[in-house]
Predict the structure.
Amino acid sequence: MQKKYLTKAQALKKLQRYCAYQDRCHSEVRSKLIELGVYGDTLEEVMAELIIDRFLDEERFARSYVGGKFRVKKWGRIRIKQELRRRKISAYCTKKGLEEIEEEDYLACLRTILEKKIKEYSRKDNDFISHQKAAVYANGRGYEYPLIWEILREIRVDS
């Protein structure tokens, strides 16, 4: 079966719907265009048109991505930065996106994660090991070790 090539207008219309559904980064849109058989100058023209019409906005993508991953998946800053870097988001947009996370909410979320994991691990292990496992878990979710240990010290004092 022969692959059907899209005209610029068809590709633009498809990608406008694709971008309107949810915020997309440039690399996702570029991959989608290639998947649809759009290459070269046509690809670049469609990308430019999407940017001009504000269907494609890297800063907006970074802000919504950071907000969603923090609120829904409870990811830490390290993990979020890694994922944005993997999507080739600029340092400026990454910084702007991370501004979506309020420090107070960030620390409260980390504390909740640690308390939950300590409770889960304390059934099987002693306090030191359960704290250690909770710290490793939180770090795996992208939280910074200095903050983790600071909150673990607070939890120990509160207990």
